[in-house]
Each structure stands twice: as structure tokens, then as C-alpha cells.
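Query form — protein Helix-turn-helix transcriptional regulator

QUESTION: What is the three-dimensional structure of this chain?
INPUT:
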Amino acid sequence: MGSQIEHRTLRQITYTCYSNSIREGEQFIPEHVFSYQISGKLIYNDGENEYLFDEDSFRLTRRNTLIKFNKVPSQDGEYSNVSVFMDQNTLRNISLEYGYRGTKSHRSEPAFHITSNELLSGYIESLKPYDELNKPGNEILKNLKLKELIIVLIQTNPFLMDILFDFTEPGKIDLEAFMNRNFRFNVSLERFAYLTGRSLSTFQLDFEKTFAANPRKWLQQKRLQEAYYLIKEKGAHTSEVYIDVGFQDLSHFSYAFKKNVWFSAITNTLSWNWKNDINRIFFF
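ANSWER: The C-alpha cells for Helix-turn-helix transcriptional regulator are given below.
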């Protein structure tokens, strides 16, 4: 039976269900997201650590986060998940209405488990008539469900106040450490600049001072070096590598890999069999 995918979006609330396939990818998370894993499991990777969220678990994914993910169906072949996106405008309004104030949280994980409780379980149950909620004219109800979730989270997990109601933008951080940790993410320079607390022009100037290189060229070189290591030393195949190191598609990756000056130089030191293997791997 082929894979069947269902996405039902209710403005801030999404329900995803598909079967019989593992899905992987990456994304930038612009808003805090509360999720309940109905079936299957989700694996996050932030470039340093992996985070596993099993079936029947709650989680919070923080805003301004870069994440690679693997969505793995359960043994019966189904993956399903419901998520609620908590936008900054709604959180600011609730902060004003109830006097909630946050300070900078000491938690640094991009995503973490939320302990199950009766209020959260009841809230998820109340979302089950997805199709009813999705009917035109239910915008007020959907906004109330979002507000309800935020209040339940704060009442049952007070530490979340420092995360949900921290409205500060990313501050200027160590550029070298950040880029060496996150070069594998295929995001724009504008996004990298924002996450390091810089304008695009300042990011480019600081980057060239730090790395003595153009950021686009540095990113390509760094990704190619990582790909070479994974292919040669770890025995990985290009179909496994190109997404992991930050290339958008296999065609772009193979072209860059074969034409890169650095690659041309090192292949001269390799055995004939290895060079033949490279040609075979990238032959379309």
C-alpha cells in the first residue's frame, strides 16, 4: 500500500498523518510549537544532539530554532502528530491581559518533553474534531483554543513562562562557533544573520573578518569537506549525504563536488579505484 499523507491546517493548529514511509528534512522554527505525538516517533537533531519524542508524548519546540528531523511511523505503519503554533502576537496579548512576564530562560535545548497531565490530555481530546474546527466561521473558537493552551501550559509548567514570554530577539553571538555548529543547515544568509544577532551587511563584514572568506563560498567548501569525509571515511552514499551537509538537491551537490577546485586537487592523491568510484557515484 502506498504512502498516504494528510495535512489539516487550522491556522495555528496542524494535524499531520501519513503512512508507510520515513520522512526526513530540516526547517527553521519561527514560533514556539506545542506538539502531541499521536503515533510513530520524531527524532530532532540540532547539529550537536539528538532528541527523541516517542508515541504518546508532549513536547515544546522553541522559536528561532534550526532543526533536522526524522519522522518514523509506528509498527502499524502510521505517523500522526498534532501541533499548535503559539505566535508572538497572541503571546504578547496574553502577557498584557494576565501580567505574565518572562526572563531569559537557562534552558538551551531546542525542544524538550512536557510532562503529561490531565489538563493537557483533556486539551488534546478537545482538538479531535479537526474537521469541525476547520469550518469557516470558527476563527474565534480556534483563537480561544490557542489561548487555552497557553494558560494550561503556564499553570501546569510555570518554568515555561520564561520561555514563552521572552520576546527578545537573538543577540549578537560568537559567529565562528555558531557557523561551525550550523553550516549543515540549508538556510539563507539572511537567516544566519538574524540568528547571530546581526544585519545582513554586518554579518557579511564580520564573517569575512572571522573566516577570511566570502560566506557563500565558505559554506559550500565546508559542506563539501564534510561530504567528502562522510563518503570516504564513513562509507556513506551521496543520496544520504547531500541533505545532511546542507545541499538543496543531489544535482547541485554532485556538480559542486566534482567541479570544486579543492576536490580536484585531493583526488589526484587518491587511488584509481577511488576516483572511478566517485565518477560512478555521480554519473547520471
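ADDITIONAL NOTE: The domain at 175-281 is CATH 1.10.10.60 (Arc Repressor Mutant, subunit A).
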